[in-house]
Write a structure and sequence with these properties.
Distance between the termini: 42 Å
CATH architecture of the largest domain: Ribbon
Largest sheet: 10 strands, mixed
Shape: elongated
Order of helices and strands: EEEHHHHHEEEEHEEEEE
CATH class of the largest domain: Mainly Beta
CATH superfamily of the largest domain: Umud Fragment, subunit A
Helix content: 10-25%
Number of strands: 12
Length: 260
């Protein structure tokens, strides 16, 4: 039988920490000189690129201690130990925060106000088995979804549907935007749709989308939504399947983008 895997206290500041910036007077005007360490400047830049206007707004959202975060951003405290945490939250690399090299706030973060840019980099197609579902970089393209606060802490992924295996719900070439369930650590929710990977012992896998259903006995099922008889078999989460494949829930679908 196959296996199936299913993969914030808020600290308020006691006082306001001022930015480590020293006004320098000259005869003509007063200019502001930012003498913070470069990692602190990059941290502020990454925070603003993620849509947080103030340090406190970001700290509250991510349940960080505000005093500590403010010290990291104003440069009075080194951020090397916290770099991975901040990098994940602000969608940059820790190396970029610390050294300026690597993935910084770039194209993936650029989006009109109120929207979030998602890279479509894979396909979902029942019956298509391959070692990878990811596309070459030149085939990838962006879509935009609402910048929903619920999903700001998490990375989101985009994949395009192919074939009739989910046509009752999603027309072909619909883009499904989904989470990584290992990152969110969210318990599966009945009535929601999930990206599902079914992998053979040989390493080949297919990726589909299924509706999570709970029956009258409390058992969980992954249901296809297709009018094609080839793609109508349900998968029991409790009992698994009998062909030796491994079935994994990859992530929950949170948006669908399609053309008229």
């Amino acid at each position: 039988m196959s296996s199936l895997v299913m993969q914030r206290s808020v600290h308020n500041a006691r006082f306001h920490v001022k930015s480590k910036r020293t006004p320098i007077s000259c005869n003509l005007h007063t200019m502001e000189f930012d003498d913070r360490p470069e990692p602190a400047k990059r941290l502020e830049r990454a925070r603003k690129a993620r849509g947080f206007a103030t340090a406190k707004e970001a700290a509250v959202f991510f349940s960080w201690n505000y005093d500590t975060y403010a010290q990291h951003e104003n440069g009075t405290r080194g951020l090397s130990r916290a770099a991975e945490t901040y990098a994940k939250a602000f969608r940059v690399s820790a190396a970029w925060l610390l050294t300026g090299e690597g993935r910084g706030p770039g194209a993936e973060n650029d989006a009109p106000a109120g929207l979030r840019r998602i890279k479509v980099a894979a396909h979902i197609q029942a019956g298509y088995w391959a070692e990878t579902w990811e596309w070459e970089e030149d085939a990838q393209y962006p879509v935009y979804i609402p910048d929903d606060p619920e999903y700001r802490p998490y990375r989101l992924y985009g994949a395009e549907t192919r074939g009739p295996s989910m046509n009752k719900r999603y027309p072909e070439k619909t883009v499904l935007v989904f989470t990584d369930i290992q990152e969110t650590q969210e318990q599966p929710i009945a009535g929601k749709r999930y990206i599902v990977e079914r992998r053979r012992a040989s390493g080949e896998a297919e990726h589909t989308v299924k509706l999570l259903h709970v029956d009258e006995e409390g058992k969980y099922w992954l249901l296809p939504e297709s009018d094609d008889p080839r793609f109508q078999a349900a998968i029991s989460i409790d009992d698994g399947i009998d062909d030796g494949d491994t079935v994994v829930i990859v992530g929950r679908v949170c948006y669908a983008v399609s053309k008229e």
